[in-house]
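tool_call: predict_structure(chain=1)
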Amino acid sequence: MLKNMKIGARLFFLVGVLSLLLIAIGVLGLRGIKMADDSLETVYNDRLIPATLLAKIDSLRRENIRELLLASFHDPKLAASKLHEADPTPSPCIPMQWWQTDRRSTSSGISTWRPI
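tool_result:
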């Protein structure tokens, strides 16, 4: 069949077949990319989101343990409160002015900080 065709027709036929082959390979490649995207979306939804939720739960659990430990230092019934140096009796809130500082400069030019 190809022997009876002219060179121009043979080249045109060859270019057409190669073009169809190229389109078929492109379609298969796009299909493979779509399948990979779907599987990665499944991995994200089934694995990564629960992992971030577990990390948040672990962070909150650690914070609760820390708060319970700090609370145990202020319970006079527990032995751990003896190790804590703070005054176990409740005290009123310290006024904010005590924590604020006033920057004064001395005659030598050295700045000092002192409570108000």
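agent: Strands lie at 101-105, 111-115. Proceeding to next step.
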